Amino acid sequence: MENDKIVEFVIENFQDIVDEKYQLRTQVIVKKKINKYQIWISNKSQIPERTLKPSPKLKSLGNEAYELIIDKKGIWIIGGSEKGLRWGLMTLFQLMEKKNNELIIPAAKILDWPHYLWRGYMLDIGRAPYSVAQIKRTIRICSVFKLNFLMLREGDDELNAFKYNHLPLGQKNPHALNLSELADIVNYGEKRGIIVFPEIESLGHAAAKRLYYPDLIQGDMFTEYWPGFSHMRKANLKVGDSGTYNLLESIYNELFPIFKHPMVHLGMHEVRLPKKDQSKHFARLLPIVDKVGKKNGREMEMIVWSDGPPTPPEYQDRVIRCMWLYDVAISPDNKSVQEQGFDYLTQANCRQKVFLAGGSSTLHAPYSKGNYRAAFENLATWTMLGEKHQNFIGLLAVQWGTNIIDEWFPNFLMAADFGWNVPKEMPEYESYMKIIASNLQKLNDFVDPNPDAVDRPAWDGIWLNGRNWDKDIMTGQKAAPVVHINSSGSFFNQESLFVKINSNFPNAKIYYSLDGSEPSRQSNLYIEPFQVKDIATVRAIAFLAGRPPSYIATQIFSNGLEYDYYQTPVLSVFELSKCKVTRFSEISQVRIVPCTQNVEAFGIIFNGYINIQKEGLYTFHLLSNDGSKLYVNNKELIDNDGLHGVREKTGKISLSVGQYPIKVKYF
Predict the structure, then answer these.
(1) In 421-494, which ranges are continuous DSSP H helix?
(2) Residue 92: enclosing H or E segment and its boundaries?
(3) What's 440's DSSP letter?
(4) Residue 548 needs a FRET pair 20 to 30 A away by CA distance; which of 259, 401, 441, 650 works?
(5) Could you please report the per-residue DSSP string of 484-536?
(6) How many CA atoms lie within 13 A of 649 on its CB side?
(7) Four-CA torsion 406, 407, 413, 414, nearest 10 degrees
(8) What pLDDT score was predicted for residue 544?
(9) What is the mean pLDDT of the chain?
(10) Residues 6+ apart with CB under 8 A from 546
């Protein structure tokens, strides 16, 4: 687009956002005499005779810098380029507020520019389908908050997300984006200040390519998600095989003309190969990227995850290392940070540029995104850690596993804010999140999106049914139903207990036993809630035509604590819910159960009731090594989850006289 047309679009885009929110069409006059990126906004039709001269600092602050002055005469905005003009207008929109049916804009004088040159977000379309409409919705929302790039993942072990003109990749995925759709997304983002570029998995995360190139894939591992289906994951392309490099060159040949910017992410991480093999592959790959880039008239800027192979010396100036770590506050002595080369990358003579990737991770289970506080601390500390290093040029907010994008918008806004204005110290979380929520509530695109821009929920290549697995996107295999046992209690200091059993599929048939025996179709058919008046172990299973049987759910009704024991390695207490129970029993108190002796990897879930005899504010202490969580009255009170040494956390809750369910999860 020519500069004048870009400026016209920037202004029209701002007018549309304001009109949609406040039903107000602003009048904007462009002043080109002093600076072609200078505009005047007021309720009058003329520019004041005395026009504003840009700050002498503006030119030196980069093309995203802007100056914004708001007074009773009107509003001046001067940008270092059309980008600065856009961000100045977006700041103006964020300052607007409607009170008593009047639009209020506070007086201000702002000279503003970003610390990090690149501030963006990633969409994991290699694990969950994204429509063009939903991707465009993310662009509209993220551009308001000054993010300037979007990384689209070309594929992963689950899906091939792109459909090519001359390659079979993606042809079996009805939700893959074709090249015309990708070009449309690229142009749409560019007009709104967001550069779109791909991550092309060029070594690992390649299991989905097996559908088309089985002879080029190796090294995957079996992962069972739920009864009924599983995936092969962590596969890689064969190193040294000419077919691998021919395939990658063909992918680059089709994608580089579509994605106009020279930046491309090559992946290269979490590969289960010796480093020498990874390095051999990387050295052979980079000249191919160069060759295709030059054919398209550009010198490519290659990004790789920083746990990948080291950069060859001749590419030190052009390969960007992308350090990554999620859900934890970042420090220089963190083991993962060190292993990714932090000491080398922060040396004064280091020629390599660095991106910082953070936010929330996910587990391979629905709705397992990390919490906002962890993402907040992670993104803030990443930017603070990189602030003084000039080669640290970008911040990337990741989104993994799913297309349930609304859960990630707060993360993206944190990255936009911290990447622009690096905090001097950790902000106060609660007040900060209120600002994030308030900013999102200003956008109808977030609050009341077009239904066409909200995709069917999926996770790790599997459609969801509510919060549970439903059907594999590629194979059509169906997941087993989920069965839940709910009751009015677990302990007999009352006359009887009511037990209700349900499934995520209402038409599933549920059978149960009361003596702890394994239920089958010959057991009691569940019809309605029933009473338990004596010690019992209720076990239930659900059957639904066309699907495997569910896991067996178990609940013990006794006069003490009950526990489920899991002898399996996990990284979070959340993962225990998808594991099979090794054994279950009763115990008098929360403690390490005897069967864990000489066992390295295990988890326990305790359930019971606490009897409160006096109303008051109660403080609970939870000490563990590794992770644990405490729930009181069916609400999470203490989150001490994750891999860590001996650590104690506390939580407070007001309780009236009575009995309350209590649960402790530990691994």
Answers:
(1) 429-441, 444-447
(2) helix 82-95
(3) H
(4) 401
(5) EEEES-SBSSSS-EEEEEEESSTT-EEEEESBSPPP-TTSEEP-S-EEE-S-E
(6) 17
(7) 180
(8) 95
(9) 90
(10) 478
The domain spans of the chain are 3-112, 118-442
The stretches in the chain having pLDDT less than 70 are 1-3, 27-36, 43-52, 227-229, 488-496, 558-560, 586, 588-591, 593-599
The CATH number that domain 3-112 falls under is 3.30.379
pLDDT value of residue 493: 47
What is the per-residue pLDDT for 33? 47
Residue reference for tokens 């001097």: 424
Task: Indicate the CATH number of 118-442 among 3.30.70.100, 2.40.50.1000, 3.20.20.80, 1.20.120.910.
Answer: 3.20.20.80
pLDDT tens per residue across span 632-660: 988 999 999 988 888 889 999 998 887 78
The sheet with strand 561-566 has its strands ordered as 583-587, 561-566, 603-612, 658-666, 628-632, 635-640
pLDDT recorded at residue 135: 98
Cis? peptide before 626, omega within 30° of 0:
yes
User: Measured between alpha carbons, how far is 640 from 574 in angstroms, rounded to an integer?
Assistant: 12
| Three state DSSP letters for 98-141 | EECCEEECCCEEEEECCCCCEEEEEECCCCCCCCHHHHHHHHHH
Q: Which neighbouring-strand residues pair with 286?
A: none
SS3 content of the chain, % helix, strand, coil (to 5): 25, 30, 40
Query: How much is the pTM?
Result: 0.81
d(CA 463, CA 482): 15
Q: Which residues contact 278 (CB under 8 A, 6 or more apart)?
A: 203, 239, 268, 271, 308, 309
Distances (CA, A) of 336 to 325, 329, 350: 7, 12, 20
The residue with tokens 């076990």 is: 539
Supply the DSSP symbol for 238.
P
Q: Which of 197, 90, 84, 87 is nearest to 150 (CA)?
A: 197
Predicted pLDDT at 560: 65
How far is residue 653 from each of residues 430, 558, 632, 633, 637, measured CA to CA in Å? 18, 26, 8, 10, 8
